[in-house]
């Protein structure tokens, strides 16, 4: 059943699965929108992994003070965002499921939801999860695919240049929704879009998600540059190489990837902001400053206050795929990033990999992708010129 048809039974009920800093920010945005729209039930339930802080349960703190003091301190949350410690109660009767979890917890959470056997038959999901998985054939599987397969529901994806603390402060930014059906995209856009958080849409779920996953691997490499105290020229070159490998990884291993996705917020914009202000770049720089004497787990504990790195796990998964399919020559930056992160290679090898005497191959016209004018803009220009 289409989501719009579900409205005949009443406003759409919303469940947010995950309550870290990004989950809390997203919960804030959609609770505000739900309150102002007849389409959505005004009460938004957010699943909170129960913790005790200063002798009080975190869910009680959130519901009483309307602040997630552990993961999003100092930001006021709407009263209609209801923290719920039970995953079953959170998703009960929900039409819209928003997954905002560290990707290592997604499969277990989906299997738990499946076991409840109460999921609304017309439910739709959207993944804000960053990461990928490796299947039995050593091919990548994306969070939306896992959600769809386990729960047997349609799953879209949202990703973009969205550092959580800046979005929480309502600083202007954009995000991209990758969708399967336009009806679903329109519902998701109405749920997420605000004047400070503008939503674009592309019919490319895989492209949006793979950009969101691999930009964190690029951020590790960018962080290594920071740890080595290299300049902006070098860091820009590493980011460019990383983004080219991201693009190649996408088109080699997935069908139907759109070039437009790379130029939306989910693509180059997210890569830029993650490489200059995200948790992965900061922790990678510290990893180099400690000269490998502190593990990634130790760095997480010191710098992330309970949050999890996604870049290191994704880097390991990407390496499995590169190794199994012998793709080292195509992905030299991803390969060296893994070796520095996990095999004790000196960080200087990141740059030495590309400082070679041989001339690079010059691209021919056949190697390049021609730019095209979007049909809606082409039509608009043609109509305008026809009146002259």
TrEMBL record:
Positions of the Glycerol-3-phosphate dehydrogenase NAD-dependent C-terminal domain: 204-351
InterPro entries given in the database record: 6-PGluconate_DH-like_C_sf (IPR008927), 6PGD_dom2 (IPR013328), G3P_DH_NAD-dep (IPR006168), G3P_DH_NAD-dep_C (IPR006109), G3P_DH_NAD-dep_euk (IPR017751), G3P_DH_NAD-dep_N (IPR011128), NAD(P)-bd_dom_sf (IPR036291)
GO process annotations (BP): carbohydrate metabolic process; glycerol-3-phosphate catabolic process
Keyword Oxidoreductase appears in the UniProt entry: yes
EC number: 1.1.1.8
Active site: 215
Binding-site residues, substrate: 130, 279-280
GO cellular component entries: cytosol
Keyword Cytoplasm tagged: no
Catalytic activity: sn-glycerol 3-phosphate + NAD(+) = dihydroxyacetone phosphate + NADH + H(+)
Family, similarity comment: Belongs to the NAD-dependent glycerol-3-phosphate dehydrogenase family.
Name under which the protein is recorded: Glycerol-3-phosphate dehydrogenase [NAD(+)]
Organism listed in the record: Nephromyces sp. MMRI
Species classification: Eukaryota, Sar, Alveolata, Apicomplexa, Aconoidasida
